[in-house]
Amino acid sequence: PAYPAAERAVRALAEAVRYAAWRREAAEPGRVPEYDDIQEAAAGADIERLLDRLTPDAPTGRSVPVPPQDAEALLARYGIHTRPVLPAPDPDTAVRAAARLGYPVALKTTAPHLRHRADLGGVRLDIAGEAELRRTYSELTDFLGSPEELRPVVQSMVPRGVDTVIRAAIDPAAGAVLSFGLAGAPSQLLGDIAHRLIPATDREVAEQIRSIRAAPLLFGWRGSQPVDTAALEELLLRVSRLVDDHPEVVGVDLEPVVVAPHGLSVLGATVRLARAPATTDLGPRRLPTY
Fold first, then answer.
1. Please, what CATH class does the domain formed by 85-156 belong to?
2. What is the CATH number of domain 40-82+160-273?
3. CA diameter of the chain
4. DSSP 8-state code for residue 142
5. Mean pLDDT (the chain, rounded)
6. What DSSP string runs through 45-59?
7. Boundaries of CATH 3.30.470.20 in the chain?
8. CA-to-CA distance for 251 and 173, rounded, in angstroms?
9. Please, how many CA atoms are within 13 Å of residue 104, restricted to the half-sphere of its CB?
10. pLDDT value at residue 290
11. Which residue among 11, 22, 98, 179 is the one 20 to 30 A from 169 at the CA level?
12. CB 239 within 8 A of CB 245
C-alpha cells in the first residue's frame, strides 16, 4: 500500500503489530492456577457461619463488613496472610503490644479520615523502643485527637518496598472485577488503576500489573531495586479465586500491600459478604477462538 505521509505508514504498522499481539494472546489465553493450600470447603463453611451471625434478618444482596479477625481467618483459607494488628487504646497497652510483636513497630490510627494517611501524620514508622513509642503516642494524641477518636493500633514493621492496593468488587454490569494500583493519592486522583474480570488468568494478571502508568516503580525505576512481581501476581490470582469460588464474597480490599524485592506483606484487609441472589447466569462468556 501507498501512504501520503510517513506518519500514516507508521500508524498502520503499529496497528498491525497490535493486531498480531492480540492474535498471539488469543491463541494462548492463560490459565487459572490451582493452589494446593486453598481450603475452599472450609472457607465456604466459614462464610455460611458468618452470614448466619451477621445477617440473620438482612435482605438478599445487602452486604455487611466482616469483623477483622474473621476476615483474616477467611483470607488465610486462600493463602492470603495479613500482618497482625493489635489495638492500643492507651500508651501502656501500646507498649505491651509492641513487646509482643517485637520492635521496630509502626503506630497507626484507624480513624476513617486518617486511615492510610501518612502525609497527615496518622502513621508513624520505625519506632525502635519503649521510650520512643511512648513519646510518639503522646505526639499523636496531642496533635490529632484523643485515643477514642484515633483508635490507634500497633503493627510490626515489614521490609521496605512499593505500596500497592488490590481490590475485588461486584460491578452491576460487568460482574466480579479485580482491581490493582499503587497506593497513594496520585494514583487515585489520576485513576491509574487496572481492572480485569474474575476469574483472572495468570496471563491477565501479569498484564494487569504492567498496564498502569506507574508500573516502572515495580521494575527498578531510576536505579531502584525491582520488587517481587511474581508474588504480587500470585496474590492477585488468590483474591480472584476467593471471589470466583464464593459469590457471597462481594468485596475484598487489601491496602496497603507492600511489595518488597523478596516477598510481600499485606498490612490491611477488609472483606464484605452478602447472600448471593438466585441467578441463571453461568458466568463470564468468552468469544470462541477460530
1. alpha beta
2. 3.30.470.20
3. 79
4. H
5. 89
6. HHHHHHHHHH-SSPP
7. 40-82+160-273
8. 16
9. 12
10. 45
11. 22
12. no
Burial class, 278, CB count within 10 angstroms (exposed 0-12 / middle 13-18 / buried 19+): exposed
Strand partners, 165: 181
On the CB side of 142, CA atoms within 13 Å amount to 6
Taking alpha carbons only, the member of 110, 104, 103, 69 closest to residue 89 is: 110
- Indicate the helix (H) or strand (E) that contains 271: strand 269-273
> Which residues in 14-89 belong to E strands, given as ranges?
64-65, 85-87
pLDDT in tens, 24-66: 877 777 889 999 999 999 999 999 999 988 877 666 668 899 9
SS3 content of the chain, % helix, strand, coil (to 5): 40, 20, 35
In whole angstroms, how large is the CA radius of gyration of the chain?
22
Residue whose grid cell is 516502572: 216
The whole-angstrom separation of Cα 248 and Cα 52 is 12
Give yes or no for a contact between 261 and 218, defined as CB atoms under 8 angstroms apart.
Answer: no
Give the global pTM: 0.84
Pair 202, 233: CB distance under 8 Å: yes
Mean pLDDT of 111-139: 84
